[in-house]
């Protein structure tokens, strides 16, 4: 960034990590209702036993 006007150049802006398009599938946090239901079915919560322990 050796710009005499003390501003970022187009190349500087485009190369910053926060200004890049996300790569599909990387850091994907979305999931379907079917996937969530399967997880809850396969891993029953221990929350019901915790409620009785007060």
Count of individual helical segments: 3
Judged by helices, strands and strand pairing, the structural class is: mainly alpha
The separation of the N and C termini measures 60 Å
Q: Approximately what portion of the residues adopt beta-strand conformation? A: under 5%
Spatial shape: rod-shaped
Average pLDDT score:
75
Low-pLDDT residue spans: 50-54
**Number of E-type strands:** 0
Rg computed from alpha carbons, rounded to a whole number of angstroms: 23 Å
Largest sheet: none
| SSE pattern, N- to C-terminal | HHH
Can you give the helix content as a percent range?
25-40%
Organism: Paenibacillus sediminis
Protein name: YfhD family protein
Region (Disordered): 1-54
Biased composition (Polar residues): 1-19, 43-54
């Amino acid at each position: 960034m050796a710009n005499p006007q003390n501003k970022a150049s187009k190349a500087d802006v485009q190369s910053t990590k926060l200004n890049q398009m996300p790569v599909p599938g990387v850091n994907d946090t979305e999931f379907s209702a079917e996937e969530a239901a399967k997880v809850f079915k396969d891993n029953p919560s221990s929350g019901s036993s915790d409620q009785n322990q007060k």
